[in-house]
Design goal:
The protein is α/β, with parallel strands linked by helices. It folds into 3 domains: about 5-170, Rossmann fold, CATH 3.40.50.300; about 205-375, Rossmann fold, CATH 3.40.50; about 385-465, GMP Synthetase, Chain A, domain 3 (2-Layer Sandwich), CATH 3.30.300.20. It has helices at about 15-25, 70-85, 100-110, 125-130, 155-165, 170-175, 190-195, 215-225, 260-265, 275-285, 300-310, 335-345, 365-380, 385-395, 430-445, 460-475, and strands spanning about 5-10, 45-50, 50-55, 85-90, 115-120, 140-145, 205-210, 245-250, 250-255, 290-295, 315-320, 350-355, 405-410, 415-420, 450-455. Strand 8 (about 245-250) and strand 9 form a beta hairpin. Helix 2 (about 70-85) runs parallel beside helix 3 (about 100-110), helix 8 (about 215-225) packs across helix 9 and helix 14 (about 385-395) crosses helix 15.
Length: about 475
């Protein structure tokens, strides 16, 4: 499933990241403790009126560090034109039209991409009126908002969703972020269970991602140059021409958007600058992302952003510490790394981590084995009775305070999603959610894949009866 990409473009300080945080804010709670939930994150998933989209704050993209502001903003606009489905061009009503606004507007007008002109910092009616001067930029629709105060941001979200390309059927179907209301009152119906069981699982789709220079193209070229992994023809699998099919243990696997990775270097190093958004799209189309990092540099904030995006998209992850060949090692170097990683990034506790060298080929095949395994974990289904044995034990050993937990059921795979019925979801503490997740993982693994726990209210039988009584009396009268 590929979500439409919406990019925010504009000069520094116009309020891009403020708007970004406002539009993606509420969804952060689903996967706890993911990296990049700080103010400086760049990608996120937004949702409005049931439509989901990937939002990118281009102000946070490190395109060519050190270049001039003008060049940087123009670069961001170019990336947005290349890769986004919709562009939010943001300007500052408190400052008025800046020369650079004209230049960016010219570029955007020439591009065949939908653009919304967002006049920010229209904090009051007077500013809003003054904002009318931006009509001179010739970009429509135009809307005046205040990202900081939330003024008209709902109207902007309406405009945004209207301007998105129509939802693909998979997007609508796969949108299992929240269970349909049918689940609220009890277990899955027979038909729903049957549908779950029939989910078609094709060959695993794997995206090779990571920040520049971590070794993506070296990795892909090594895999595709590997005689044993070559598949000339894959019966029954349709694939995009930009993807590659390989054989892992004789079973097919799709490497998503290898064209984007191989092309660079060969034709134009400049293309690399566009690879960030391209990677996002690849992740959306994949089951599992192999995230490459550079052992020489350690696990950086940028790496954490990439992993964060993968987890937020509900995809599996294999974290590769690449260039392991250049690390000086003694008997416990890898162990020390693992410990440090899991300490620094608790969300990696259940992630799959491989130390490898794309250059020498060390553990390259192993990475693909792991990716396959993670893809399988992502589709694992736990029968309701078994799940409830685990949850009941967990609750007995460590009861939550002030909350009653009735039962749990798995409502979706890919990622595995569980609904836990309780008397009052607002009383579930963050740490208790973590505890239940750990108990479920201790039993079933789900290695490498995020899992979602959704707490839903369920009135107890008793209070339901109590609530029902007065109504019956009323009817008799
Ligand atoms: P970016 O560089 O474009 O990402 O801009 P930021 O989101 O970091 O915002 C730059 C400054 O403008 C910050 O101090 C924000 O608090 C402020 N700001 C953002 N939106 C508004 C707004 O709607 N009204 C006002 N008055 N200030 C805003
Ligand atoms: P990409 O930008 O992620 O596609 O990275 P490249 O595949 O172009 O690799 C960037 C640089 O790192 C190149 O000079 C590679 O030769 C080098 N490189 C890639 N993988 C390894 C590795 O496992 N070990 C070492 N020592 N160098 C590597």
């Amino acid at each position: 499933m590929s979500l439409p990409v919406v990019a925010i473009v504009g000069r520094p300080n116009v309020g891009k990241s403020t708007l970004f945080n406002r539009l993606v804010g509420e969804r952060v709670a689903i996967v706890e403790d993911i990296p990049g939930t700080t103010r400086d994150r760049v990608y996120g998933t937004g949702e409005w009126n049931g439509r989901r989209f990937t939002l990118v704050d281009t102000g946070g993209l490190e395109l060519e560090p050190g270049t001039h502001i003008e060049a940087r903003v123009q670069d961001q606009a170019r990336v947005a034109i290349e890769e986004a489905d919709l562009i939010l061009f943001m300007v500052d009503a408190a400052v008025g039209i800046a020369p650079l606004d004209h230049e960016v507007a010219d570029r955007l007008r020439r591009a065949a991409k939908p653009v919304i002109l967002v006049v920010n910092k229209a904090d009051n009616p007077r500013r809003e009126l003054e904002g009318a001067e931006f009509y001179a930029l010739g970009i429509e629709p135009m809307i005046a908002i205040s990202a900081q105060h939330g003024r008209s941001t709902g109207d902007l979200a309406d405009l945004l969703v209207d301007a998105l390309p129509p939802a693909s059927p998979e997007e609508t179907e796969a949108d299992l972020g929240e269970p349909a209301s049918a689940f609220v009152d009890g277990d899955l119906s027979e038909t729903e269970l049957a549908e779950l069981a029939e989910t078609e699982i094709g060959p695993p789709r794997v995206a090779i991602v990571g920040r520049p220079n971590t070794g993506k193209s070296t990795f892909v070229n090594r895999v595709l140059g590997h005689e044993r992994m070559i598949v000339s023809d894959l019966p029954g699998t349709t694939r995009d021409p930009v993807d590659s099919a390989v054989a892992v243990d004789g079973e097919p696997m799709i490497l998503v958007d290898t064209a984007g990775i191989r092309r660079r270097g060969a034709i134009d190093r400049g293309i690399e600058r566009y690879s960030v958004l391209r990677s996002l799209k690849a992740i959306d189309r994949a089951d599992v992302a192999v995230v490459l990092t550079d052992a020489q540099e350690g696990y950086t904030a940028q790496d954490a952003h990439v992993v964060g995006y993968v987890l937020e998209a509900g995809k599996g992850v294999v974290l590769v510490i690449n260039k392991w060949d250049v690390v000086e090692k003694d008997g416990h170097t890898a162990d020390d790394w693992l410990k440090a990683l899991r300490r620094e990034a608790p969300y990696l506790a259940w992630a799959d981590i491989v130390f490898a060298s794309a250059l020498t080929g060390q553990r390259v095949e192993r990475i693909l084995h792991e990716a396959r395994r993670v893809a399988e974990e992502r589709y694992r289904r736990v029968p309701t009775a078994e799940l409830n044995r685990v949850v009941t034990d967990a609750v007995r050993e460590h009861p939550p305070s002030h909350v009653r937990i009735y039962y749990a059921t798995q409502v979706a795979v890919a990622p595995p999603t569980f609904v836990v019925f309780v008397n009052d979801p607002t009383l579930i503490h963050f740490s208790y959610r973590r505890y239940l997740e750990n108990r479920i993982r201790a039993e079933y693994g789900f290695l490498g894949t995020p899992i979602k726990l959704i707490f839903r209210q369920r009135v107890s039988e008793e209070s339901a009866r109590r609530q029902a009584r007065p109504r019956r009396i009323a009817r008799r009268r």
